[in-house]
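User: Modeling request: complex.
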Amino acid sequence: NAGVTQTPKFQVLKTGQSMTLQCAQDMNHNSMYWYRQDPGMGLRLIYYSASEGTTDKGEVPNGYNVSRLNKREFSLRLESAAPSQTSVYFCASTRGLGNQPQHFGDGTRLSIL
Amino acid sequence: QKEVEQNSGPLSVPEGAIASLNCTYSDRVSQSFFWYRQYSGKSPELIMSIYSNGDKEDGRFTAQLNKASQYVSLLIRDSQPSDSATYLCAVKVGVGFGNEKLTFGTGTRLTIIP
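Assistant: Request completed. Predicted assembly structure:
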């Protein structure tokens, strides 16, 4: 029972490089989310997808793009990485409407040099 | 004012005592409230959810909700060293499909002292 799977777990990039963080869930959830977590800042929502085919901006979307590839997969892309994007990135999913909690992946620790 | 506020701690509690974690929120229409536990270097793990005013108990954990005061708390009885973690309060904001999101507090770091 994998739940929410994120790849890679760790990554080091140079400023200006691009990369895509992958997320997949096997719980047949409708909604998926990308957060970043920085010390003292808590979890901040970057983008979310309420259902397959839709995406919306969260609190801190600048510098990121997302793709909801299908119901299972939701990817986050950094087109030109900046040191300010050094963070831990979490993907989460939930069934959708109602009082359903979000389930988190193990996170991707990303460093931009 | 932040949408969800928590005391960042650290909160130190002796082993066996009751740990009390507090959270206030600003959106009066919020209906769903969650407590997540996050160990250092790990992902958040759901430990309690509460939707109605009053108390909800699950083992050593009790969540308390007071919507009139916009206040939600988590009590941990018989605290154990394994309870040492950061506790995140999360509030569901927005109504309707596609609009519902979780807003998280910055977390309270709890240390249980043996």
